[in-house]
Design goal:
Elements lengths: L20 E3 L3 H13 L5 E3 L8 H4 L3 E4 L15 E5 L5 H10 L3 E4 L4 H13 L6 E7 L6 H14 L4 E5 L7 H4 L22 H7 L2 E2 L2 E4 L11 H13 L3 E6 L5 H7 L4 E7 L2 H14 L6 E6 L10 H8 L3 E5 L5 H6 L11 H13 L19 E2 L1 H4 E2 L2 E2 L1
Parallel strand pairs: 1-2, 1-3, 3-4, 4-5, 6-10, 6-11, 7-9, 7-10, 11-12, 12-13
Antiparallel strand pairs: 5-14, 8-9, 15-16
């Protein structure tokens, strides 16, 4: 492909997957498309005319053709992932050209910018199975939700799963502290509080501290304690698109941001100490969580002392929730934390055994729970080329 002419602007993606191929000579359209690629975290290759053999036309994950170049590309071999972009999606000439090219959509800009940015990001990142996302919430203060969330994430990472741990509780003290990485370089929640729309999953992971073979999104030591709902939605969606496992430590009170997180959680674990007051408190927590999260299960944590407390089955019956398992009281856990050993770092002990057995139960091989309730797709300012023209008649 001859694309290194004068005044040509081209960027090449050095990642594992190349960026999209843009074919247009319309400078205004090119500026818009380059801006959308930047928003999606993609580096495109730009060309002007018909591609030759063994070029980006065959290898690019997505091809975006400007309406000014559509006529010149007639006869080029068909491929999947072709978008025809212009200023009017209802132009009958453009619709016929799209059918001739085998384009999947005719897109009008600027109305279709949000859809196209998402489509570019999907193409570059790859579209695979979303991460299995587990949310952990305490039935009362001090129930051990943060320790369980950390242990689940550390255990998943130890098995080789791509893992991200998200601290959704701004008042919890910071999961990076619990993992001994409060001084590690990387972004914290305040850096993402302005996030809206699409966040690139790979860029998100690369920006976070890596602790114990997993990525951690936690809080800094500043005064910012609010996660806007739009930021929670965008960040968790990006984390899920990477696949693997995402574990979210959630606060007990459900606000708009927590509701956004719960909407993307596959399995929720409500950890409840085996005592009557804890059950009463957990019932109030459950009132806020259960309407948003369909699959909520209870984890019963043992209490210190000779009295075993309420039986796990009885607690599950009182809460009317399925029992995910029991965690015996682990006297050495606090001592491990004081020595810098994070929860779940060792393969032994009640906490480690629970986490190992939990992941075995919900792994894909054992039939994972169904995916979360994804938001409804927004209306697209464009038309499917295959349905827009039928037998030469615009419909």
């Amino acid at each position: 492909m001859t694309s290194e002419g004068p005044n040509h602007r081209a960027d090449r993606n050095g990642g594992e997957r190349g960026g999209p191929l843009i074919l247009t000579e319309d400078e205004r359209l090119l500026d818009d498309l380059l801006r959308l690629c930047a928003a999606a975290g993609a580096l495109p290759e730009v060309g002007y005319g018909p591609p030759g053999r063994n070029t980006a036309w065959e290898t690019a994950p997505l091809v975006i053709i400007g309406e000014d170049c559509a006529a010149r590309l007639r006869g080029v071999g068909r491929r999947e992932g072709v978008i025809l972009a212009g200023r009017c999606a209802d132009d009958p000439v453009l619709l016929h050209q799209a059918v001739a090219l085998g384009a999947e959509r005719v897109l009008a800009l600027p109305d279709g910018e949000r859809w196209l940015a998402d489509r570019i990001a999907d193409a570059v990142e790859g579209v695979g199975s979303p991460a299995l996302t587990v949310g952990v919430v305490g039935g009362r203060g001090g129930a051990g939700a943060s320790s369980l969330a950390c242990a689940l994430a550390v255990t998943a990472a130890r098995t080789g799963a791509r893992t991200m741990l998200v601290d959704g509780d701004p008042l919890g003290g910071g999961l990076d502290v619990l993992l001994g990485g409060e001084k590690e370089q990387g972004l914290r929640w305040p850096a993402f509080c302005e996030s809206r729309g699409r966040v690139a999953g790979g860029a998100l992971a690369d920006s976070l501290p890596q602790l114990h073979s997993l990525r951690v999104l936690s809080w800094d030591r500043g005064g910012e304690v609010v996660i806007p709902p739009s930021a929670m939605r965008a960040v968790l969606a990006a984390a899920r698109r990477r696949g693997g496992v995402v574990v979210v430590d959630l606060p007990r009170r459900v606000d708009d941001a927590v509701a956004e997180a719960l909407a993307q959680v596959d399995v929720g674990l409500l950890i409840v100490p085996a005592e009557l007051r804890a059950v009463a408190a957990a019932q109030r927590v459950m009132v806020g969580v259960r309407p948003v999260l369909g699959d909520l299960r209870v984890v019963v944590r043992g209490v210190p002392g000779p009295d075993p407390g309420l039986a796990p089955d009885e607690i599950a019956r009182l809460l009317e929730l399925p029992l995910a398992g029991e965690l015996a009281w682990e006297a050495g856990l606090l001592g491990d934390l004081a020595r810098g050993v994070p929860p779940g770092a060792g393969p032994r002990g009640p906490l480690a055994r629970f986490c190992t057995e939990f992941w075995e139960r919900v792994s894909p091989a054992s039939g994972p729970p169904p995916g979360p309730r994804m938001p409804r797709p927004r209306p697209v300012a464009g038309r499917s080329a295959r349905t827009a023209v039928r037998g030469g008649v615009r419909t």
